[in-house]
Amino acid sequence: MIVAPSILSADFSRLYEETKDLYAYGAEWLHIDVMDGHFVPNITIGPVVVQSLKKHLKMVFDVHLMISDPRFFAKAFVDAGADIITFHYEATNDVLGMLSYLKSLGVKVGLSIKPHTPVVVLEPFLKELDVVLVMSVEPGFGGQSFMPLALDKIKYLAKQKQENHYPYLIEVDGGINEQTGQLCAQAQAEVLVAGTAIFKASNRQEVIGRLKQL
Asked: How far apart are CA 163 and CA 169, in angstroms?
């Protein structure tokens, strides 16, 4: 299992201190939630923060654009050091165009859906994706409870991947802890985004280690 700690739950006043040991603890990816206050009712960070962290961390920077105009901001995040850019199906009328644009920037591409968006809307795009991100909470704020409806979406994506030999990784974000992570693992998720479960833990290394073993 790939573990991607979400900095949304970190202490932003000491962000480097919060993240500098995660790779040594076994977390390969760093999940960065970008919110614009429009697509979701919260505002987080911009490319300058990504650029600052990238100078010091070896991790894969997994940037999740929860914004209304992902095309406008994508290049700035790629230039800042994003390794993966994931945008929302609900945020654009031209998914294929956005995927093509991201690939032209030399970045891996991901597509995400909100909890109540049917997973079948992704079917025309699956062969183009490096990552499919299933939201198991309403995007916008950390600390929410896991929504079990995500599990059927994970199973559907796993079935499509197996039957069609698609290369994407199945990522899940929202309310992930050891118990919900186990359910996602059983449904064949491959990347777990965990915020509160890691950053609020008394022993982050142990939590990451247990998530990796799911």
From this structure: 14
- What are the φ and ψ backbone dihedral angles of 66, each rounded to 5 degrees? -100, 65
Q: What is residue 139's predicted lDDT score, i.e. its pLDDT? A: 81
* pLDDT value of position 143: 73
Q: What residue ranges do the domains of the chain occupy? A: 2-212
Structure tokens at 155: 């199973």
Residue ranges in the chain whose pLDDT is less than 50: none
pLDDT digits (tens, 9 = 90+) for 47-60: 999 999 999 999 99
Residue 131, φ and ψ in degrees, nearest 5: -140, 140
Amino acid at 91: A
| Long-range interactions of 110-115: CB distance < 8 A, separation 24+ | 110/62, 110/64, 110/84, 110/85, 110/86, 110/171, 111/86, 111/87, 112/64, 112/86, 112/87, 112/88, 112/173, 113/88, 113/89, 113/153, 114/88, 114/90, 114/138, 114/139, 115/147, 115/149, 115/150, 115/174
Q: For domain 2-212, give the fold.
A: TIM Barrel (3.20.20)
Active site residues: 33, 173
Its pTM surpasses 0.90 = yes
Tens of pLDDT along 182-204? 999 999 999 999 999 999 999 99
